[in-house]
């Protein structure tokens, strides 16, 4: 268990690193903000006594000259602060790029940044990261995956300008490599890549979107399929979170079609919950989980890890809907009615106590954000 300081903690990679640290049970990292980097004394104070500094902040888009200058300046600011620290960390981990030194302003600036950090003399882990994708990536900035997912979630279609080869790594795997977390069944610090083409990626995501619009789960037969689907789902939440379910009744009783999964493993279970009782209060990194209230009334509430606002759904078994839990959001369900609550749960994997992918986290930590559904 290490005490870390992080630059760029509010960015795409930084957020995923903080979520992984939460799952690992490590201390909350010290955050070095862009404002902190303007003052070497402040940086020195932030890094004093930590075990390691993760330099994740960078400039990826914009005018080439600004990109080049920005990456070098950020590394120089970190280096100045480290040199002033009376008790500096044992090492620095730099989120570099496989494009480092490739002759472009971005690539050459990343190589220069690595050299600047190495000159501090604390020991540098220069981790050259490929193209990263994952939940809540910023469209038109972090990854083509995020761009395609956003377009599809808004009922648009990806536009292919160049059908080039892609090598994609899920951002949680990159986070594990940065913090030195050993591989598990949930994350893999070896950063296994998905090799595909832009057109193939667009078709794959479009297929997921079309299937999910019907309330169905697409074929999730490998780890990248699960993570690409979870990335798409992150762009659907909360606007497309209530999935109406077919309900049929005759003289024998009623039938509700709650889950249609096209391929891959899965597990279904039901629970009863007494009035006022809460279930959940945890989050998942990769698991797809569906809640369907079949009898009674409940509130399902969710909070994105690292934030305070809570999204709430009021659901009723008289009008059944499916609510799928987004990955990296703490969630819970509470019986709000006077009678016993009957809920069906479905996950895309059979529960494994050795790798449950379930991390305790309260939902209620701050003011509510919004209530959705009825």
TrEMBL record:
Every Capsular polysaccharide assembling protein CapF C-terminal domain range: 249-359
Q: Which domain of life is it from?
A: Bacteria
One Pfam short name: Polysacc_synt_C
Q: Where is the NAD-dependent epimerase/dehydratase domain?
A: 6-179
**Protein name as it appears in the record:** UDP-2-acetamido-2,6-beta-L-arabino-hexul-4-ose reductase
Species:
Micromonospora phaseoli
